[in-house]
Write a structure and sequence with these properties.
The complex is a heterodimer of chains A (152) and B (347). Chain A is an alpha+beta fold. Chain A has one domain (23-149): TATA-Binding Protein (2-Layer Sandwich), CATH 3.30.310. Chain A is 48% helix and 22% strand. Chain A has a 5-stranded antiparallel β-sheet. Chain B has 2 domains: 17-213, Cytochrome Bc1 Complex, Chain D, domain 2; 223-346, TATA-Binding Protein (2-Layer Sandwich). Chain B is elongated, with a radius of gyration of 25 Å. Chain B is of the alpha+beta class. In chain B, strands 1-5-4-3-2 form a 5-stranded antiparallel β-sheet. The chains are: A alpha+beta (152), B alpha+beta (347).
Amino acid sequence: MKILNKYFLVLVMALISSPVLAGDLLMVRTQQSFPEAMLALQTSVKEHGYEVTRVQRIDIGLTGMGYKTDKYRVVFVGKPSEIQYLINKYPVLAAYMPPQISIFAEHGETVLVTANPLIYAEMIDEEADKVLFRRWESDVYSVFDDVRDADE
Amino acid sequence: MKTFVLLFFLSLSLSAYSAPHGDELFARHCSACHGKDGKGGVGVPIALASFLDSVSNEYLKKTIRHGRPGRIMPAFENLSDAQVGAIVIHIRSWSDKPVPKEDTTVIKGNVANGKKVFAGHCAQCHGEEGVGGIGTGVTFSRKRDLPIIAPALNNAGFLAAASDVMLRDTITLGREGTPMTSMLVAGLSEKDIDDVVSYVRSFEKSAAELKQTLNKNDNEPPVIVMQSPYGLEETVENLKQAITDQNFTLIRTDYLEHGLVPEGSENKKQVVLHFCNFGFLFQALSLDPRVGMFLPCRITVIEKDGKVQISTINPKRLSKLFNNHELDSYCDEMYEVYNTLLEDATL
Protein backbone atom coordinates (compact mmCIF):
# COMPACT_ATOMS: atom_id res chain seq x y z
CA MET A 1 0.00 0.00 0.00
CA LYS A 2 2.85 2.31 0.93
CA ILE A 3 4.54 1.58 -2.40
CA LEU A 4 1.30 2.22 -4.27
CA ASN A 5 0.95 5.56 -2.52
CA LYS A 6 4.47 6.44 -3.59
CA TYR A 7 3.74 5.59 -7.21
CA PHE A 8 0.48 7.49 -7.07
CA LEU A 9 2.34 10.52 -5.78
CA VAL A 10 4.88 10.22 -8.58
CA LEU A 11 2.06 9.96 -11.12
CA VAL A 12 0.35 13.05 -9.73
CA MET A 13 3.63 14.98 -9.77
CA ALA A 14 4.24 13.89 -13.35
CA LEU A 15 0.83 15.04 -14.47
CA ILE A 16 0.98 18.29 -12.54
CA SER A 17 4.34 19.13 -14.04
CA SER A 18 3.01 18.72 -17.58
CA PRO A 19 2.76 22.05 -19.39
CA VAL A 20 -0.47 23.92 -18.89
CA LEU A 21 -1.02 26.08 -21.91
CA ALA A 22 -4.51 27.36 -21.33
CA GLY A 23 -5.61 30.79 -22.45
CA ASP A 24 -8.77 32.76 -21.76
CA LEU A 25 -9.96 32.14 -25.30
CA LEU A 26 -9.73 28.81 -27.05
CA MET A 27 -9.48 28.98 -30.82
CA VAL A 28 -8.94 26.65 -33.71
CA ARG A 29 -8.75 27.06 -37.46
CA THR A 30 -9.64 24.42 -39.98
CA GLN A 31 -9.04 24.44 -43.70
CA GLN A 32 -12.50 23.01 -44.21
CA SER A 33 -15.22 25.14 -45.68
CA PHE A 34 -17.80 26.52 -43.30
CA PRO A 35 -20.49 23.83 -43.85
CA GLU A 36 -17.96 21.01 -43.43
CA ALA A 37 -16.53 22.59 -40.29
CA MET A 38 -19.99 23.12 -38.84
CA LEU A 39 -20.81 19.47 -39.46
CA ALA A 40 -17.52 18.36 -37.89
CA LEU A 41 -18.18 20.58 -34.87
CA GLN A 42 -21.69 19.30 -34.26
CA THR A 43 -20.63 15.69 -34.78
CA SER A 44 -17.77 15.96 -32.31
CA VAL A 45 -19.88 17.84 -29.76
CA LYS A 46 -22.40 15.01 -29.80
CA GLU A 47 -19.68 12.36 -29.66
CA HIS A 48 -18.42 14.00 -26.49
CA GLY A 49 -21.86 13.66 -24.93
CA TYR A 50 -23.04 17.27 -25.28
CA GLU A 51 -26.17 18.65 -26.91
CA VAL A 52 -26.31 21.45 -29.45
CA THR A 53 -29.16 23.42 -27.93
CA ARG A 54 -29.35 26.17 -30.52
CA VAL A 55 -27.55 27.61 -33.52
CA GLN A 56 -27.81 31.38 -33.78
CA ARG A 57 -27.37 32.59 -37.36
CA ILE A 58 -25.64 35.91 -36.80
CA ASP A 59 -24.86 36.35 -40.51
CA ILE A 60 -28.51 36.03 -41.51
CA GLY A 61 -29.50 38.81 -39.14
CA LEU A 62 -26.69 41.05 -40.36
CA THR A 63 -27.29 40.54 -44.07
CA GLY A 64 -31.01 41.01 -43.47
CA MET A 65 -30.18 44.47 -42.15
CA GLY A 66 -27.95 45.26 -45.12
CA TYR A 67 -24.53 44.47 -43.66
CA LYS A 68 -22.06 42.46 -45.71
CA THR A 69 -20.64 39.48 -43.93
CA ASP A 70 -19.38 35.96 -44.45
CA LYS A 71 -20.89 32.95 -42.67
CA TYR A 72 -21.08 33.49 -38.93
CA ARG A 73 -22.95 31.32 -36.43
CA VAL A 74 -22.99 30.90 -32.67
CA VAL A 75 -23.52 27.36 -31.41
CA PHE A 76 -24.94 26.83 -27.90
CA VAL A 77 -23.61 23.66 -26.31
CA GLY A 78 -24.16 21.84 -23.03
CA LYS A 79 -25.20 18.76 -21.12
CA PRO A 80 -28.74 19.34 -19.79
CA SER A 81 -28.15 17.88 -16.34
CA GLU A 82 -24.94 19.87 -15.83
CA ILE A 83 -26.39 23.15 -17.04
CA GLN A 84 -29.47 22.76 -14.84
CA TYR A 85 -27.32 21.82 -11.85
CA LEU A 86 -25.05 24.83 -12.30
CA ILE A 87 -27.82 27.35 -12.88
CA ASN A 88 -29.79 26.17 -9.86
CA LYS A 89 -26.77 26.15 -7.59
CA TYR A 90 -25.02 29.24 -8.99
CA PRO A 91 -27.47 31.79 -10.45
CA VAL A 92 -24.46 33.96 -11.30
CA LEU A 93 -23.69 31.50 -14.10
CA ALA A 94 -27.13 31.79 -15.71
CA ALA A 95 -26.01 34.70 -17.90
CA TYR A 96 -23.27 32.51 -19.41
CA MET A 97 -25.19 29.27 -19.91
CA PRO A 98 -25.26 27.31 -22.08
CA PRO A 99 -21.69 28.01 -23.24
CA GLN A 100 -21.35 29.31 -26.78
CA ILE A 101 -18.94 28.56 -29.60
CA SER A 102 -18.51 31.08 -32.41
CA ILE A 103 -17.84 29.64 -35.84
CA PHE A 104 -17.11 31.86 -38.79
CA ALA A 105 -15.72 31.65 -42.30
CA GLU A 106 -12.45 33.37 -43.08
CA HIS A 107 -10.98 33.27 -46.58
CA GLY A 108 -12.38 29.83 -47.40
CA GLU A 109 -11.27 28.47 -44.05
CA THR A 110 -13.22 28.36 -40.81
CA VAL A 111 -12.36 29.64 -37.34
CA LEU A 112 -13.91 28.47 -34.06
CA VAL A 113 -13.68 30.43 -30.83
CA THR A 114 -14.99 29.93 -27.34
CA ALA A 115 -14.25 31.19 -23.85
CA ASN A 116 -12.12 28.85 -21.81
CA PRO A 117 -14.62 27.16 -19.45
CA LEU A 118 -12.18 27.79 -16.62
CA ILE A 119 -13.36 31.41 -16.56
CA TYR A 120 -16.63 30.09 -15.14
CA ALA A 121 -14.75 28.32 -12.36
CA GLU A 122 -13.65 31.74 -11.12
CA MET A 123 -17.30 32.62 -10.55
CA ILE A 124 -18.02 29.87 -8.04
CA ASP A 125 -16.62 28.87 -4.68
CA GLU A 126 -16.86 25.12 -4.34
CA GLU A 127 -13.74 23.33 -5.47
CA ALA A 128 -15.66 20.13 -6.11
CA ASP A 129 -17.74 21.84 -8.79
CA LYS A 130 -14.74 23.48 -10.43
CA VAL A 131 -13.66 20.04 -11.61
CA LEU A 132 -16.59 20.17 -14.02
CA PHE A 133 -15.09 23.15 -15.84
CA ARG A 134 -11.72 21.48 -16.09
CA ARG A 135 -13.43 18.60 -17.86
CA TRP A 136 -15.27 21.03 -20.12
CA GLU A 137 -11.96 22.65 -21.00
CA SER A 138 -10.46 19.27 -21.82
CA ASP A 139 -13.49 18.42 -23.95
CA VAL A 140 -13.29 21.73 -25.83
CA TYR A 141 -9.67 20.99 -26.69
CA SER A 142 -10.68 17.54 -27.84
CA VAL A 143 -13.59 18.83 -29.93
CA PHE A 144 -11.41 21.49 -31.50
CA ASP A 145 -8.74 18.90 -32.26
CA ASP A 146 -11.41 16.80 -33.97
CA VAL A 147 -12.53 19.75 -36.10
CA ARG A 148 -8.96 20.69 -37.02
CA ASP A 149 -7.95 17.12 -37.77
CA ALA A 150 -11.06 16.51 -39.88
CA ASP A 151 -9.40 18.30 -42.80
CA GLU A 152 -6.37 16.00 -42.84
CA MET B 1 10.13 -3.20 -11.31
CA LYS B 2 9.76 -0.24 -8.97
CA THR B 3 12.41 1.64 -10.91
CA PHE B 4 10.68 0.85 -14.19
CA VAL B 5 7.33 2.19 -12.99
CA LEU B 6 9.00 5.28 -11.59
CA LEU B 7 10.79 5.96 -14.86
CA PHE B 8 7.61 5.34 -16.83
CA PHE B 9 5.66 7.95 -14.90
CA LEU B 10 8.49 10.45 -15.05
CA SER B 11 8.77 9.93 -18.78
CA LEU B 12 5.14 10.99 -19.12
CA SER B 13 6.13 14.34 -17.73
CA LEU B 14 9.48 14.74 -19.41
CA SER B 15 8.15 13.81 -22.83
CA ALA B 16 6.06 16.96 -22.76
CA TYR B 17 9.22 19.02 -22.53
CA SER B 18 11.64 17.11 -24.72
CA ALA B 19 12.02 17.86 -28.41
CA PRO B 20 8.93 19.96 -28.91
CA HIS B 21 7.47 19.79 -32.40
CA GLY B 22 7.21 23.27 -33.83
CA ASP B 23 4.57 22.34 -36.38
CA GLU B 24 2.29 20.90 -33.70
CA LEU B 25 2.87 23.84 -31.38
CA PHE B 26 2.19 26.28 -34.20
CA ALA B 27 -0.99 24.41 -35.09
CA ARG B 28 -2.23 24.55 -31.51
CA HIS B 29 -1.21 28.06 -30.50
CA CYS B 30 -0.75 30.14 -33.64
CA SER B 31 -2.63 28.77 -36.64
CA ALA B 32 -6.08 29.81 -35.43
CA CYS B 33 -5.12 33.44 -36.04
CA HIS B 34 -2.18 33.26 -38.46
CA GLY B 35 -3.40 30.35 -40.57
CA LYS B 36 -1.96 26.87 -40.89
CA ASP B 37 0.57 28.07 -43.45
CA GLY B 38 1.12 31.47 -41.84
CA LYS B 39 -0.86 33.30 -44.48
CA GLY B 40 -2.86 35.29 -41.94
CA GLY B 41 -6.49 35.74 -41.03
CA VAL B 42 -7.48 37.21 -37.70
CA GLY B 43 -3.73 37.63 -37.26
CA VAL B 44 -1.19 39.13 -39.64
CA PRO B 45 0.43 36.99 -42.36
CA ILE B 46 3.86 35.85 -41.23
CA ALA B 47 4.79 33.60 -44.14
CA LEU B 48 5.59 36.63 -46.29
CA ALA B 49 9.11 36.36 -47.70
CA SER B 50 9.67 40.09 -47.25
CA PHE B 51 8.82 39.73 -43.56
CA LEU B 52 10.78 36.58 -42.78
CA ASP B 53 13.82 37.81 -44.68
CA SER B 54 13.99 41.00 -42.62
CA VAL B 55 13.33 39.92 -39.03
CA SER B 56 15.61 38.07 -36.67
CA ASN B 57 14.73 35.00 -34.65
CA GLU B 58 14.99 37.19 -31.55
CA TYR B 59 12.23 39.41 -32.92
CA LEU B 60 9.99 36.38 -33.44
CA LYS B 61 10.77 34.96 -30.00
CA LYS B 62 10.13 38.27 -28.25
CA THR B 63 6.90 38.67 -30.20
CA ILE B 64 5.70 35.27 -29.00
CA ARG B 65 6.75 36.04 -25.44
CA HIS B 66 5.36 39.60 -25.20
CA GLY B 67 2.46 39.32 -27.63
CA ARG B 68 0.81 42.58 -28.57
CA PRO B 69 -0.91 44.00 -25.48
CA GLY B 70 -4.31 45.34 -26.48
CA ARG B 71 -3.92 44.17 -30.11
CA ILE B 72 -5.31 40.63 -29.82
CA MET B 73 -2.10 38.58 -29.84
CA PRO B 74 -1.63 37.23 -26.30
CA ALA B 75 1.72 36.88 -24.55
CA PHE B 76 2.65 33.20 -24.55
CA GLU B 77 4.30 33.23 -21.15
CA ASN B 78 3.57 29.59 -20.41
CA LEU B 79 5.56 28.19 -23.31
CA SER B 80 9.05 26.98 -22.49
CA ASP B 81 12.07 28.45 -24.27
CA ALA B 82 12.40 25.19 -26.18
CA GLN B 83 8.79 25.40 -27.33
CA VAL B 84 9.15 29.00 -28.45
CA GLY B 85 12.33 28.05 -30.27
CA ALA B 86 10.58 25.15 -31.98
CA ILE B 87 7.79 27.44 -33.19
CA VAL B 88 10.37 29.86 -34.61
CA ILE B 89 12.14 27.01 -36.40
CA HIS B 90 8.81 25.97 -37.88
CA ILE B 91 8.13 29.53 -39.05
CA ARG B 92 11.61 29.62 -40.59
CA SER B 93 10.75 26.57 -42.68
CA TRP B 94 8.70 28.88 -44.91
CA SER B 95 11.81 30.65 -46.16
CA ASP B 96 15.11 29.33 -47.46
CA LYS B 97 16.90 32.68 -47.14
CA PRO B 98 19.56 33.28 -44.46
CA VAL B 99 18.16 34.31 -41.09
CA PRO B 100 18.95 37.97 -40.33
CA LYS B 101 21.03 38.52 -37.21
CA GLU B 102 19.61 40.83 -34.56
CA ASP B 103 21.40 44.18 -34.54
CA THR B 104 20.68 46.14 -31.36
CA THR B 105 22.49 49.30 -32.42
CA VAL B 106 20.58 52.29 -31.11
CA ILE B 107 19.65 54.85 -33.75
CA LYS B 108 19.63 58.43 -32.52
CA GLY B 109 17.54 60.57 -34.82
CA ASN B 110 15.59 63.78 -34.45
CA VAL B 111 12.25 62.93 -32.86
CA ALA B 112 10.62 66.24 -33.79
CA ASN B 113 11.47 65.82 -37.47
CA GLY B 114 10.54 62.16 -37.27
CA LYS B 115 7.09 63.16 -36.07
CA LYS B 116 6.60 65.44 -39.09
CA VAL B 117 7.83 62.81 -41.53
CA PHE B 118 5.68 60.15 -39.87
CA ALA B 119 2.57 62.34 -40.19
CA GLY B 120 3.22 62.79 -43.89
CA HIS B 121 4.28 59.29 -44.90
CA CYS B 122 3.23 56.74 -42.28
CA ALA B 123 0.17 57.94 -40.35
CA GLN B 124 -2.20 57.30 -43.22
CA CYS B 125 -1.87 53.55 -42.63
CA HIS B 126 -0.36 53.26 -39.14
CA GLY B 127 -2.59 55.97 -37.65
CA GLU B 128 -1.77 59.06 -35.66
CA GLU B 129 0.97 58.27 -33.16
CA GLY B 130 1.23 54.74 -34.55
CA VAL B 131 -2.03 53.37 -33.17
CA GLY B 132 -2.34 51.01 -36.14
CA GLY B 133 -5.14 50.17 -38.55
CA ILE B 134 -8.64 49.56 -37.27
CA GLY B 135 -10.17 46.11 -37.02
CA THR B 136 -8.88 42.64 -37.72
CA GLY B 137 -9.56 39.62 -39.85
CA VAL B 138 -11.08 39.28 -43.29
CA THR B 139 -14.58 38.25 -42.25
CA PHE B 140 -15.73 41.78 -41.52
CA SER B 141 -13.08 44.47 -41.53
CA ARG B 142 -10.35 43.65 -44.03
CA LYS B 143 -10.89 43.64 -47.77
CA ARG B 144 -10.21 40.28 -49.35
CA ASP B 145 -7.41 41.66 -51.49
CA LEU B 146 -5.74 43.47 -48.59
CA PRO B 147 -3.15 41.18 -47.05
CA ILE B 148 -2.74 43.03 -43.78
CA ILE B 149 -4.14 45.75 -41.54
CA ALA B 150 -1.34 48.14 -40.60
CA PRO B 151 0.19 47.02 -37.29
CA ALA B 152 0.20 49.28 -34.24
CA LEU B 153 3.66 50.73 -33.70
CA ASN B 154 2.88 52.28 -30.31
CA ASN B 155 2.51 48.83 -28.83
CA ALA B 156 4.62 47.71 -25.88
CA GLY B 157 5.04 44.20 -27.30
CA PHE B 158 6.08 45.44 -30.72
CA LEU B 159 8.55 47.97 -29.32
CA ALA B 160 10.04 45.34 -27.01
CA ALA B 161 10.57 42.98 -29.94
CA ALA B 162 11.68 45.31 -32.74
CA SER B 163 15.19 46.74 -32.75
CA ASP B 164 15.93 50.18 -34.15
CA VAL B 165 17.82 48.59 -37.02
CA MET B 166 14.87 46.37 -37.87
CA LEU B 167 12.60 49.42 -37.92
CA ARG B 168 15.03 51.26 -40.15
CA ASP B 169 15.37 48.36 -42.56
CA THR B 170 11.61 47.90 -42.76
CA ILE B 171 11.04 51.59 -43.51
CA THR B 172 13.89 51.62 -45.99
CA LEU B 173 12.98 48.48 -47.91
CA GLY B 174 9.23 48.27 -47.34
CA ARG B 175 7.42 44.96 -47.20
CA GLU B 176 6.78 43.41 -50.57
CA GLY B 177 3.36 41.80 -50.67
CA THR B 178 1.84 44.43 -48.37
CA PRO B 179 0.85 48.08 -48.91
CA MET B 180 4.10 49.09 -47.14
CA THR B 181 6.42 50.45 -49.81
CA SER B 182 10.06 51.48 -49.60
CA MET B 183 10.18 54.94 -48.05
CA LEU B 184 13.59 55.44 -49.60
CA VAL B 185 12.02 54.99 -53.01
CA ALA B 186 9.16 57.21 -51.87
CA GLY B 187 11.65 60.02 -51.40
CA LEU B 188 12.73 59.97 -47.77
CA SER B 189 16.39 60.49 -46.99
CA GLU B 190 18.32 58.10 -44.76
CA LYS B 191 18.32 60.83 -42.11
CA ASP B 192 14.53 61.19 -42.34
CA ILE B 193 14.21 57.44 -41.86
CA ASP B 194 16.47 57.51 -38.80
CA ASP B 195 14.33 60.34 -37.43
CA VAL B 196 11.17 58.27 -37.93
CA VAL B 197 12.81 55.36 -36.11
CA SER B 198 13.52 57.63 -33.15
CA TYR B 199 9.99 58.97 -33.24
CA VAL B 200 8.56 55.45 -33.20
CA ARG B 201 10.90 54.57 -30.35
CA SER B 202 9.54 57.56 -28.43
CA PHE B 203 6.17 55.76 -28.29
CA GLU B 204 7.54 53.52 -25.55
CA LYS B 205 6.20 55.67 -22.71
CA SER B 206 2.67 55.96 -24.09
CA ALA B 207 2.74 52.25 -25.00
CA ALA B 208 3.56 51.35 -21.41
CA GLU B 209 0.73 53.58 -20.18
CA LEU B 210 -1.67 51.98 -22.64
CA LYS B 211 -0.65 48.54 -21.43
CA GLN B 212 -1.51 49.54 -17.86
CA THR B 213 -5.04 50.56 -18.85
CA LEU B 214 -5.71 47.05 -20.13
CA ASN B 215 -5.99 45.78 -16.57
CA LYS B 216 -8.47 48.40 -15.43
CA ASN B 217 -11.42 45.99 -15.34
CA ASP B 218 -9.75 43.13 -13.48
CA ASN B 219 -11.96 43.63 -10.44
CA GLU B 220 -15.24 43.94 -12.29
CA PRO B 221 -17.83 41.32 -11.27
CA PRO B 222 -18.61 38.72 -13.96
CA VAL B 223 -22.28 39.62 -14.13
CA ILE B 224 -24.56 42.62 -13.79
CA VAL B 225 -27.38 41.65 -11.46
CA MET B 226 -30.47 43.48 -10.24
CA GLN B 227 -33.46 42.39 -8.20
CA SER B 228 -36.85 43.21 -9.69
CA PRO B 229 -39.69 44.41 -7.48
CA TYR B 230 -42.12 43.02 -10.06
CA GLY B 231 -43.28 39.52 -10.87
CA LEU B 232 -41.59 37.44 -13.57
CA GLU B 233 -44.01 38.24 -16.38
CA GLU B 234 -44.14 41.95 -15.63
CA THR B 235 -40.37 42.12 -15.43
CA VAL B 236 -40.06 40.42 -18.82
CA GLU B 237 -42.56 42.87 -20.34
CA ASN B 238 -40.67 45.79 -18.81
CA LEU B 239 -37.46 44.49 -20.33
CA LYS B 240 -39.03 44.14 -23.78
CA GLN B 241 -40.13 47.76 -23.62
CA ALA B 242 -36.73 48.91 -22.39
CA ILE B 243 -34.96 46.99 -25.19
CA THR B 244 -37.15 48.68 -27.81
CA ASP B 245 -36.65 52.08 -26.18
CA GLN B 246 -32.87 51.62 -26.47
CA ASN B 247 -33.16 50.99 -30.23
CA PHE B 248 -32.41 47.30 -29.97
CA THR B 249 -34.35 44.64 -31.84
CA LEU B 250 -35.88 41.91 -29.71
CA ILE B 251 -34.98 38.68 -31.52
CA ARG B 252 -36.86 36.25 -29.33
CA THR B 253 -37.87 35.36 -25.81
CA ASP B 254 -37.54 31.77 -24.68
CA TYR B 255 -36.82 29.63 -21.67
CA LEU B 256 -33.28 29.18 -20.46
CA GLU B 257 -33.66 25.43 -20.81
CA HIS B 258 -34.67 25.69 -24.47
CA GLY B 259 -32.98 22.86 -26.33
CA LEU B 260 -31.74 21.27 -23.12
CA VAL B 261 -34.96 19.50 -22.22
CA PRO B 262 -37.98 18.34 -24.28
CA GLU B 263 -40.11 21.22 -25.51
CA GLY B 264 -42.85 21.99 -23.03
CA SER B 265 -40.97 20.71 -19.99
CA GLU B 266 -38.68 23.73 -19.56
CA ASN B 267 -38.53 25.58 -16.26
CA LYS B 268 -40.99 28.43 -16.92
CA LYS B 269 -39.41 30.53 -14.19
CA GLN B 270 -36.18 30.96 -16.15
CA VAL B 271 -36.56 33.24 -19.17
CA VAL B 272 -33.99 34.61 -21.60
CA LEU B 273 -34.47 37.63 -23.84
CA HIS B 274 -32.27 37.75 -26.95
CA PHE B 275 -31.89 41.11 -28.64
CA CYS B 276 -29.56 42.99 -30.93
CA ASN B 277 -28.62 46.32 -32.45
CA PHE B 278 -27.24 45.14 -35.78
CA GLY B 279 -25.28 48.31 -36.48
CA PHE B 280 -23.54 48.02 -33.14
CA LEU B 281 -23.04 44.29 -33.65
CA PHE B 282 -21.42 44.81 -37.04
CA GLN B 283 -19.05 47.42 -35.67
CA ALA B 284 -18.04 45.16 -32.79
CA LEU B 285 -17.47 42.17 -35.08
CA SER B 286 -15.44 44.35 -37.43
CA LEU B 287 -13.13 45.23 -34.58
CA ASP B 288 -12.89 41.65 -33.42
CA PRO B 289 -14.78 38.74 -35.03
CA ARG B 290 -14.19 36.61 -31.94
CA VAL B 291 -16.59 38.66 -29.85
CA GLY B 292 -19.58 36.87 -31.37
CA MET B 293 -19.45 34.13 -28.77
CA PHE B 294 -21.21 36.49 -26.36
CA LEU B 295 -23.77 37.56 -28.93
CA PRO B 296 -26.55 38.28 -29.49
CA CYS B 297 -27.18 40.28 -26.32
CA ARG B 298 -29.00 38.31 -23.67
CA ILE B 299 -30.68 39.10 -20.39
CA THR B 300 -31.78 36.30 -18.08
CA VAL B 301 -34.75 36.62 -15.75
CA ILE B 302 -35.07 34.02 -13.01
CA GLU B 303 -37.76 33.68 -10.37
CA LYS B 304 -36.64 31.70 -7.35
CA ASP B 305 -38.20 31.54 -3.90
CA GLY B 306 -40.60 34.32 -4.85
CA LYS B 307 -37.81 36.73 -5.85
CA VAL B 308 -37.15 37.86 -9.41
CA GLN B 309 -33.56 38.44 -10.42
CA ILE B 310 -32.30 39.87 -13.71
CA SER B 311 -28.76 39.20 -14.81
CA THR B 312 -26.52 39.56 -17.80
CA ILE B 313 -22.85 39.22 -18.63
CA ASN B 314 -20.59 42.08 -17.65
CA PRO B 315 -18.94 43.23 -20.89
CA LYS B 316 -16.29 45.14 -18.96
CA ARG B 317 -15.11 41.97 -17.29
CA LEU B 318 -15.12 40.08 -20.58
CA SER B 319 -13.15 42.71 -22.47
CA LYS B 320 -10.02 41.31 -20.86
CA LEU B 321 -10.51 37.98 -22.62
CA PHE B 322 -10.02 39.53 -26.03
CA ASN B 323 -6.85 41.58 -25.43
CA ASN B 324 -8.25 44.12 -27.87
CA HIS B 325 -7.98 47.74 -26.83
CA GLU B 326 -10.28 48.84 -29.65
CA LEU B 327 -13.01 46.63 -28.27
CA ASP B 328 -12.80 48.07 -24.77
CA SER B 329 -14.82 51.19 -25.56
CA TYR B 330 -17.56 49.00 -27.06
CA CYS B 331 -17.57 46.85 -23.94
CA ASP B 332 -17.85 50.00 -21.82
CA GLU B 333 -20.74 51.16 -23.98
CA MET B 334 -22.52 47.82 -23.74
CA TYR B 335 -22.02 47.88 -19.99
CA GLU B 336 -23.92 51.17 -19.87
CA VAL B 337 -26.65 49.81 -22.15
CA TYR B 338 -27.15 46.69 -20.01
CA ASN B 339 -27.30 48.77 -16.84
CA THR B 340 -29.85 51.10 -18.40
CA LEU B 341 -32.01 48.19 -19.52
CA LEU B 342 -31.91 46.54 -16.12
CA GLU B 343 -32.65 49.81 -14.34
CA ASP B 344 -35.51 50.68 -16.68
CA ALA B 345 -37.06 47.26 -16.16
CA THR B 346 -36.86 47.40 -12.38
CA LEU B 347 -37.80 51.02 -11.68
